[in-house]
Amino acid sequence: MSLPPSNSESAGFDLLDPAIQRWVWREGWTSLRDAQERAIPALLNADRDVIIAASTAAGKTEAAFLPILTNLLKHDDPAGSVIYVSPLKALINDQWGRLETLCEELDIPVVAWHGDISASRKHRFVKSPRGILLITPESLEAMFVNRGSGLAGVFANLRYLVVDELHAFIGSERGKQLQSLLHRIELVVERTVPRVGLSATLGDMKLASAFLRPRKEQGVEIIESKSSGQVLKVQVRGYVDLPNEQDASSSGTSKQEADSDAEEAIAAHLYQVLRGSNNLVFPNSRQKVERYADRLRRLCESDGVPNEFWPHHGNLSKDVREETEQALKAGNRPATAVCTTTLELGIDIGSIRTVGQIGSPPSVASLRQRLGRSGRRQGESAILRGYCEERSLSDDSSLSDRLRQGLVQSIAMIRLLMDGWFEPPRVQGCHYSTLVQQVLSIIAQRGGAAAGELWRSLVATGPFSTVAQSDFLMLLRAMGEHDLVVQEASGLLLPGESGERFINHYDFYSAFVSDEEFRLICDGKALGSLPVSSPLSVDQRIIFAGRRWQVAGVDESAKVVVVKPSPGGAPPLFDGVGARVHDQVREEMKRVLGAAEACPFLDSVGQELLDEARCCFNEFALGRRSLVDVGAKTVVFTWRGDWTNDALAILLKRQGIQCESAGLLLEVESSSNNVREALQRVAESPAPLVTDLLADVKNMVREKWDWVLPSELLAASFASTYLDIEGARSTASALSSQAQR
Q1: Residues 119, 121, 127: CA angle, nearest 5 degrees
Q2: Could you tell me if 574 and 488 lie in one domain?
Q3: What integer pLDDT is reported at residue 546 of this predicted model?
Q4: Are 87 and 212 in a shared domain?
Q5: How many domains does the chain have?
Q6: Strands of 242-316, DSSP E
Q7: What is the pLDDT of residues 372-409, one digit of tens each?
Q8: Is the dihedral of CA 711, 717, 719, 722 positive or negative?
Q9: Does residue 380 share a domain with residue 255?
């Protein structure tokens, strides 16, 4: 981290307050990073919205706060305040430590505000609201609900609204809540407050600007630093494992719950190359985090050396997670965290040498965020070690296994990362669930509100601008039917009896629910649980624990899926129930399979596996064919992402074609001629009503308040978030035309 000496040509440094300049000198900085240099004049006068996008450890926090603190010092009558919104309490604690050192010298208070902070410290800020308030969206929501009448005084001298990790909010229910809260702050103070977004991962700056300042995104100044100069070193290793022959229907265990041969080999290699340094290892589930952490710990024990491997995921207690974080930060002994996305965001965990990725990454953006942890010291490279487990092939191996779907997806994502591409956020969601919460929140804040007031605050001028007035009134009526709101004779809406209970519970402040897993049950016996992001309907086939199953029933409220064994041969190892894959990734997978040159970052086993996949690709002429007959089934290759594939599967079912999305491909229980005709009907028929299309889908209640929504709004909400219906129809047209040729 660096700032310029006085004889340098840094115009930005000269604009900073002298007290901040002195602090900079004592820190030993010698030059400004480019983002810091450009941010100072942009932020100094609090007269515009700004996004600062730079790689991890590029000094984004200082880029924002050096000019912001200068503004607070130069205009201190009255004393100003700043609200800094973070997605994580741990990040707030982190930033508090970083800012407190500087702000103590400047006599500017820094106040962390979340559930672990005492009421007395919060009260001191409310009584004298000056300095920097570090807060989560949930705690900000609680301020509106519990301190509604006093917020005008609390926010009176607010100068800036800072949103850290901006990418973590865009497109989500929590992000829509944050947009609403930022807008409601401005309604309270009756003026525009400059907004500052900080992020390391932003795929589309226009989308980011539109999120930060809806309707006026063209006025957002973008400061984008691309000059990390970081060298990336990559190796992806392939491993082959025997098929799982165990009968999962007669046992609650499977290879998903016991170390496979490949997993033991992967753990042994991790142990060999990671010992003696600080690293992060990302398996793709909490269950695998525990398995790998346990295996690596036992390897330390068998060698008689201190343990260097620690688990970290959301189901662990706060104390256990903090123990892992402290082991990484301490610096007095090597430590490796085996973790989920919990260590993806910018919590300070010190210098990381290597990032290990077991299986395909959730997304290119996620991989980029993880790699930002590595190689942060001057002159160090970022190191990525990938591990891909594939199954040995037999005569009845599925096309998915023969195409080495997991390995090829990993290769495609790494190639896209090297090209500088990563997924833009999906912003098409209706977010009716969060609208329910915000209606209740405003009613609580104001002690009641008329429907017209709510419409103006949330829709007409607020972030829910895509909601039609008729749909808004339908939503209010549904809330009344569920006793969330009642209407006085004057027209004023007040909390109903149920609404009061929800508002007065601490859980109300969160707009989202954690991803819940469905329990799978066969003949009364639990098989295990898994997250299900794709639409579920009765008779649908799914893959779990190395077996194919047919859905017999879905209890949405209890999160239970009743299944029965389904015939159909060996299922693919790649089960496709994880993160959703973008169109661009699948297109890149096709390019990887269609190429002939060796992949430079694969080991010898990985290259052999890729060569097998390419032979299969060429054998079935998949460069020019999309429909392949496999026994009594047809396999459809769309080379599109999961939003398109899931929608196409539903559209084909509507045409009487039993179809299941299996990641890279669709499996259809019909002849290729029937499939081609069905695709043609999908392409040429008018777009169906969403409520009709999703009539058989049993798992549409996904967000916190979805249970309130009438069927029309629930279907529209689900489709807007999880399906690309128009993309599916255009894909059907292209596939039909290709099949005819």
Answers
A1: 100
A2: no
A3: 60
A4: yes
A5: 4
A6: 279-282, 309-312
A7: 877 766 667 889 999 999 989 988 888 989 999 999 99
A8: negative
A9: yes
